Amino acid sequence: MIKIYPSILSADFSKLGEEIREIDNAGADGVHIDVMDGVFVPNITFGMPVVKAIRKCSRLFYDVHLMIEKPERYIQAFADAGADGITFHIESTDSPECVIDLIHETGKKVGISIKPNTPIPSMDLLKEVDLVLVMSVEPGFGGQKYLEAMNRKIEDLARVRYEHDLKFEIEVDGGINLENASVVTKCGADILVAGKTVFEAEDKKECMSRLREG
Ligand code: DX5
Ligand code: ZN
Fold it and tell me: Choosing from 29, 37, 63, 173, which is the catalytic residue?
């Protein structure tokens, strides 16, 4: 079953709690939380205090996507704030192995993410993680167009997973809509992140069902 994680980057921040309760009631499988530092990406969102504040709004899986330089500095803090899974960019640190270990130590699910121009991570990393997040737009902003070239990368990643009998989930983030969801899942995605598509939908429940069915 494909999982849909709405990205709260497209929510109305003036009523974030309400927005999260709404997607929870509408059947979301998790909440995707984009943390940006204005250095790794050219945008700034929010940090641990906001994650802590919204933790009480839902029991859904809180999927924290760190787009920050040197994420090793903040792993424990995001775990303490209420993340269920922590995903960082392998481009953002000198030692992805150490960051993976740090997340493991917190007991949270471990995710690694790659930007559109970054090749599939090495086997040494893939065998240690619960999730690989394929960015299908340049990270930093919601509402961008899905990069078709990522279809091939998702397929390759799914093939590597199969060939090596690995278990990580494949999550795809950026530009997912009702037109391309089915192709992306056919390529091998297990989790679709959708910001604009879900938050701008009149009927969020129906929108998520359609994204899930492809
Ligand atoms: C972009 C973020 C995405 C973004 C997706 O850097 O990582 O999670 O919110 O937004 P849409 O679905 O609108 O492309
Ligand atoms: Zn994201």
Answer: 173
